[in-house]
Structure formats: structure tokens, C-alpha cells
Amino acid sequence: MTTDAAATAPISGASIPADIKRHRTYALIILTLAYTSSYLDRTIVGALAEHIKHDLELSDTALGMLTGFAFAMFYATLGVPLAVLSDRMNRRNIIAAAVTVWSVMTVACGLAANYIQLLVARIGVGVGEAGSSPQSHSIIADMYAPHERSRALAFYALGVYAGGMLGFLIGGLAGEALGWRTTFLIVGFPGLLIAGLIYFTVQEPPRGLSDGLSGATRKAPTLDEAIAGLVAAFAFIWKSKACRHIVIGVTLTSFVGYGGIMWAAPFLMRTHHISGLQIGLILGPIVGVLGGLGAMLGGYLADRLGKTDLRWSSWVIAVAKFAAAPLILCFYLSDDFNIALAFYLPAAVLGAFYLGPGFAMLQSTAPLHMRATVSAIMLFILNFIALGFGPLAVGAVSDALEPAFGNDSLRWALMGTSLVNVWAAVHYYFAGTAYAREMKKTA
């Protein structure tokens, strides 16, 4: 990794008005709470997986369908048209409605009497969550200048780890004591309060504010305009080498991540014979604290190193992925839980580096009028492949290996998919070079 003339510092951005500066931290916190709620509702299924499996008598493949594909199909597909609308309509209102829907459907999961009803409710959660992240990315990008975005979006990404932590903690504690159905009721209702806070207290910022551009909210598009905007956004991602590599890297990373997090509790129960309560108390804080630390550290390093060489905005992720790969292998191979945990701790920090810088680079390269749409397309690809097939692939491979390896089949399935992170690291390396070149052209 050498420095050349293509590397340049990011543009400083426009002067942010004082009222927006006062409000943006609050808005970022509330949007992060919504993201936390979405990941809590999303990952609670993994924490409760063994309880659901035994109660409904499911195979690992059926469980993988429940935790991944059924949710992801609608979440990924609906995210794109909702984002196209968000580039022309009030983003805050769309987010508030989305949080309401997924919270109500999480409650419905707790009322499910059988597998089909639970599957339909999980689809409903996916429908609701389709209208949140791209819109939040767009709002945050309008409140924070380019050189601040990695840190702001890394803070937003804390919702992933806070939601994961709460999922393991609540799933472990309430799942053991109250059962999986009651646990769904407990985690669903708070989202309604968050939806109210978003609708009544979060401002909709002017589009392009942090970039020194004027972009008033537009009227709802016609069908032809929406299709044209979608095609233009796809064309932009394909044309931009930086965006292509970022999307591929984030998708591959998330394929491993979703498979790992959804099957973490079953793996620890089967391989290390740890109870759900212990998993919640041990794994929950690790995911939340160390994952959050890694997300913030990744965002900080990307912003700090990117000031002198933009390629490091992505290279910090590549280095983290290469460093984490052997640690993850050792985690899955170890038969001693304490030794396995020692390998997992640094891997949890390194593995979280990617979210803030990845989303920030995408928002910085995307044209103002299609930021939410570009973000939604990335999330469509990411979630359809990673969330849709990550947990499902692990479950299917585990079922296939079970006759030969017994309870260890899940261990080998997870270890095999973890190697995909090395492939992702290569794309992050190439993304850094392309990002520096493309930002230099627009500066």
C-alpha cells in the first residue's frame, strides 16, 4: 500500500447552520435508537433459535429460512422503491412509519401458534425494516460534512451492536424464564415509543445542506420518474469502481456476519454446552461493547487516516479483515470455551470496522439526488444475498454435515463460511484506490 498522487484529502463540506449543529446530535441518537430496535427485532430470532427449533420441531434449514431468507426477501426488495420515494419525500415520516410496522409485526411473532404464522410475521418485520436505514443514511449525510461522515455513520452503526447485545441479553434471560413467545412481545413494544420520538421531534434537514448545495424536498415521482431514477442509481453504482467494490465487500462481510450472529447461540449451546442465560450474559456484552468499540474505532481511523490519504478510508477495513480471519478460525476450532473466547474478543473489534467507513464512502460518492436510492440498492444486494442466504447456507450445510459430524456439523459450517472474509478484504483494498481517484475528480 503506497502513496501516490491519486490520494487526496476529502472536501471539507459547507458550513453547517448553528440550529442544525445543535439538533444533529439528538437526531443521530434517535435514529441510532431506531436502528438498535431494528437489529434487536432482527437478531432476537437467533438468540431464541434453539427454543423455537425444539418447540416447533424444525430442521436447521427451516430455522435458517426463518432467520434469513423469509425476512430478507421482502426487506431487501421493498427497500429500493421506498428509498426512491425517500429521495423525493419526507424521510423522517417514512422512518417513523417503518418503525411502527416492524414493532407491531415483532409483537405478532409472539402471538404465532405455528411455523407458518411465525414465518409470515417475520416477513412483516422485514417489510417494516425496509423503510429505515437508507433514509437514515441520507438524513445523516445532510447533517454531517464529508470529513465527518465516517464517524457519524459509525455511531449510527452502533445500533447493530447495541441491538445484537440486547438480542442476546433479552433472548438469554427472557427466553429461558418466560419462553420465546413472551420474549417477542417484550422486544416489540418499545419500538412504538421510538417511532413517536422520530415523528414528533426529529427534523427533516434540507437536502445537500452539508455539501453546500440546495435541494428542496421534491414532490412524489411519477412511475416513469421513479423507474428512471432507479435505473440511474444502478448505472451509477456499476460505473463507479469504488461503489462496486464497496458493495461487494460489504455484502461478503455481511454474508459471514449474518450467518455467524444468527447461529452463534446454537453453536455455543451445541459445541460448548452453554445455556441460553450464560450466552446472553457473556456474548451480549461482547457483541455490544466490543462490536461498538470496533465500529467507532473503524470510523475514527478512516476519517483520521483519510485526511492525508483517502485510500485509507477503505484500507483500514481491508487490514482489519485480514487480521481477523485467523482469529475467527481459531475461535471455531477451539474445544475450550475460555480459549475460544480469547480469540473471539479481538476478532469482534476488528470485524466491526467496516460499517461506518463503507456507508460513508457510498454517501460521499453518490450524487445528491440519489443518495437514499444508492444506499437502498446496496442494502438490497447486501440483504438479499447476505441476510437471505447467510443463515440459510449455514443451516443447510450443517444439516448436510450432520450425519458425519453430529453436533460438530454447525461448527464446520460456520468455520467454512468465515473464510469469505478474506475475499471481502481484497475488495476493500481495491475500493480504497478507486475511491481516492473518484473523489479527486469531484473535488
Compute the gyration radius: what is it? 21 Å
Q: Which of globular, elongated, flat, extended, rod-shaped describes the shape? A: globular
- Count of DSSP strands: 0
Question: Helices and strands, in N-to-C order?
Answer: HHHHHHHHHHHHHHHHHHH
In DSSP terms, counting alpha (H) and pi (I) runs of 4 or more, how many helices?
19
Query: What is the makeup of the main sheet?
Result: none
Q: Which percent band covers the strand fraction?
A: under 5%
Give the proportion of residues in helices: over 70%
Quaternary state of the chains: single chain
- Unreliable spans are 1-13
- The pLDDT mean sits at 84
What is the total number of structural domains? Answer: 1
Regarding CATH, which class?
Mainly Alpha
CATH superfamily membership: MFS general substrate transporter like domains
Spatial gap, N to C terminus: 23 Å
Structural class: mainly alpha
Query: Architecture, according to CATH?
Result: Up-down Bundle
* CATH topology (level 3) name: Growth Hormone, Chain: A
Give your account of this protein's structure:
It is built from 19 helices and no strands. With 443 residues, the protein is mostly helical. Helix 1 (18-47) packs parallel to helix 4 (91-110), helix 7 packs antiparallel against helix 8 and helix 11 packs across helix 17 (371-405). It is globular and about 55 Å long. The protein has one domain (18-211, 221-442): Growth Hormone, Chain: A (Up-down Bundle). The longest helix is centred in the C-terminal third of the chain and has 35 residues, at 371-405. 81% of the residues lie in helices and 0% in strands. It has helices at residues 18-47, 49-56, 60-86, 91-110, 115-129, 133-143, 149-178, 180-188, 190-201, 223-239, 241-262, 264-272, 276-306, 312-333, 337-351, 355-365, 371-405, 409-418, 420-442.
